[in-house]
Design goal:
One of its GO terms (molecular function) is methyltransferase activity. The chain has about 200 residues and is an alpha/beta fold. The protein has 8 helices and 9 strands. It has a single domain, classed as Vaccinia Virus protein VP39 (Rossmann fold), CATH 3.40.50. About 35% of the residues lie in helices and about 30% in strands.
Length: about 200
């Protein structure tokens, strides 16, 4: 199924308008986002990896006083984000090769990181570290257990993968992050499995 992971970039580019139309704006993520915000200083710089259209997550972060830099591999998604939130900074970039040369108080990879293959996920933790100031908060979503899963979006295969929880903990620790909170399939967050960590 690893070949399906390579199709994600093109899939979201082809279906950006559909994603924008179907993406819930109810902000069911609010509880976790507010825990993330509580770890940040005032007026923090936040990196949103796989930002999509910027709605609703980056919009919520900006309303809370964050200066958001959003990156996404889809030019159409970035175009939509620019239209939705012109005060943000938006860049087309593949998270796997991300090297902005800047560090942030907070890093977010919500419903984006889990589209990478398992080897690419492992390689992301040094990328997170390279973009984090001391004390930075990191929040991302994963699957609840090691494995790969295929969904459907826009009539095409939509790839997801996860490592085991124990491996995520080890990868975070290897880069100097401690786990602040973790919950698998959180019923208060639409069944998402969420990791919140902080660089120590």
């Amino acid at each position: 199924m690893s070949s399906d992971a390579e199709k994600i970039v093109g899939l979201y580019e082809r279906h950006a308008a559909l994603f924008a139309a179907e993406r819930s704006t109810a902000l069911f993520e609010r509880g976790w986002l507010d825990r993330f915000l509580a770890l940040l200083p005032e007026r923090p710089a936040v990196l949103d990896i796989g930002c999509g259209t910027g709605v609703p997550i980056a919009r919520h972060l900006m309303a809370a006083g964050c200066a958001v830099t959003g990156v996404d591999s889809s030019p159409r998604m970035i175009g939509l984000a620019q239209g939705n939130l012109p005060a943000g900074e938006w860049q087309v970039a593949d998270m796997r090769t991300l090297a902005l040369g800047r560090r942030f108080h907070g890093i977010l990879a919500w419903d984006s990181f889990f589209h990478l293959g398992q080897a690419s996920q492992r390689a992301m933790f040094p990328v997170f570290r390279a973009h984090a100031v001391p004390g930075a908060a990191l929040i991302f979503t994963s699957g609840p257990a090691q494995g790969e899963a295929l969904g459907r979006f826009g009539g095409e295969v939509l790839y997801h993968a996860s490592l085991a929880p124990e491996e995520y903990r080890a990868l975070l620790a290897a880069e100097g992050f401690r786990v602040v909170a973790h919950r698998a399939e959180d019923p208060e967050c639409g069944g998402h499995t969420v990791w919140l960590a902080q660089l120590i």
